[in-house]
Each structure stands twice: as C-alpha cells, then as structure tokens.
Amino acid sequence: MKNKSFRLLFIITALAIVIVAAKFLFFPGKSKAETGAARAKFDLRINGLVLVKQQLSDTLAIAGSILPEELTDLSFEASGKLIAISFNEGTFVKKGSRLAKINDADLQAELQKAMANKKLQEQREERARALLKKDGISKEEYDQINNAGELARAQVALLTAQIAKTELSAPYDGYVGMRLVGLGQYIVPTMVISSFSKLQTIRVEGALPESYFGLLKPGDIIHFQPSNLGRYLTAKIYAIEPKISSESRTFVFRAKADNPGAKIPSGGFAKILLKLNHSTDGFIIPAESLVPDAKGYVAYVFDNGKVKEKRVQLLRRDAENSYISEGLGYAAVIHESFNN
Questions:
Q1: CB atoms closer than 10 angstroms to residue 55
Q2: How many domains does one find in the chain?
Q3: Same structural domain for residues 53 and 106?
Q4: pLDDT in tens, 282-315
Q5: What is the pTM of this model?
Q6: φ, ψ for residue 219 (rounded to 5)?
Q7: Count of CB atoms within 10 A of residue 42's CB?
C-alpha cells in the first residue's frame, strides 16, 4: 500500500516538472524591454506650437461674389399661345423693347366691340347734354346716360390693359439671357421666359466675421479682382447688413462698381481686399487647430502639463491660418496628434 502511494506521488511530481519545463521551453516570457516597447507603440504623440502674441494685419483678403445691379426673371402676366419671340439671346436690349407676345385675338375682338359701344355711348351723352341745357330731359335721366358712358370707357380701358399683358417688354436697359420656351408653346404666368440683367453696373458682395462689425461704412472703397481679369478694380460700399447671421456669425456688405461693356460677368468669384484701418493684437494658429462647435470655436492647448479646451474669438481665417483675437494666452496650442 505504501509503495503504491509513493509511486503515485512520484508520477504527479514528474508531470508537474514536465509541464513547467515545457512552459519555459515553448512559451518564453517577454522581457521588460520588449514589454515597454510594446506599450510605447500605443503612446499618443502630439505636435504643438508655442504661441506668440503679435499684431494682426488690418488688410483682409476674402472671397466674394459678383452680382448684377438688377436681375429679373421675365414672365407674362397672362396665359396664351406664344406667337412671337423678338429678341436675340445674350444681347443688349433697350427699356420698353418688345421681347415676346402671346395670342390676343379674342381680346382684340372684344376691344373692337367695346370701342364701338363707347362711341355710341359718347354720342348719347352729347345729345343728352344738349337736351339737359334746354330742360328736354331730367337730371336723373342725364346721369343714367352719363353713367353708361363711363362704364363703356372703363370696359375699353380694361381690355387695353389685358392686351398689354400679352406683350413682354424689357423692364430696363439690360441684357437678355437664354430663352426657356418655344414658339407655339402655351404660356402661363408661372413660366419663366428668360432672365434679364442690368450689367452696366455690378455689385460686389462679401461677408466678414462679427468682430469686424462697425469697421466698415457706406462710402468706403474696396478693391476686388474678378476671376476673368488679372488686375484689381475699385468699388464703393453702399450697403451693410445690419444684423449678424446666427449660423455663420458673419455679416454681409455690398459695393458697386462700373462695368462698361459688361466685361465682368455676374455670378462669378471675386477676390476682395479690405483695408480696415484697424489693427489688434492676437495669435496666429494653424487652421486645423480651430474646432467649430454650436457656440463658436475652441482650440486645445497644453498648459502646465494638461490639455485644456479654450473658447476663442475668431478674427478671420484663411486656407492655412486662423487669426485669434481673444481666448488664448502664452501656451502651446495642439495642432496635430497621432499614434506612434
């Protein structure tokens, strides 16, 4: 019995030694150096930029748009078949020139009838006026005849106005666009026949951050460069939006400039240069360092060994930099992070 117990204990001990030896032989443990390297592999690295306060330039370069002085969608006030188109697309047209016409044959017939009735009523009025002077008719009878004459004249005026609505005329001196309808097509008042624009003068529109509100005023001169010209032109500000957009936190301004020969097309891009006669101290940080949120903009800085979120006041930004007037101090702003 004792021999059996001893034999069993020997077998168990031998198995334990074999298992431990196999672990170290086939599954060696990692060294401390290897463990540290693996941990370092997942360390977060950040790049920062030490902030230096400086004077921000008061000359701004912003993107803008070129608008016509006037832009109109041409349409008829009446319905009918289009029987004439009297303009060449893309050409200059004088105010009042007929551009198109719809069929008015039924109205013309009614007008002829109304004019005949008007003539008849005017003759009756003339006879009644002569009889009234001789007391041949009463004042009441004369008033009835005169009222019939007024109704006849009103009917002629009504039909004349309805016929005028069958003609489409140029509302001002300008350029007519591409036609959007064809001859013989049935026209209704909601259909646009073509566009019409006044390009002898153009409007230049731009937007500035709310921090610049009050620095521009009507009469100020700006410089702009249309995309189809290689030089800057001047324009005079005539209007400034009195409110700030709650979505973009910007306000809009518009300026006018002469456009002889309509060489500058409307709807195009313009680079605008603004001299604000105002400078302020602030910080310039990489554009990607600025993070927009529902309340404005924030930046993340490394201060006293900790990453902190700072709400900032954006003065302006371009493709490379953001110009901050308030919210940052002398710290390192984080502009890039990555895993090693």
A1: 9
A2: 3
A3: no
A4: 777 787 777 888 777 888 877 777 778 888 877 7
A5: 0.63
A6: 105, -15
A7: 8
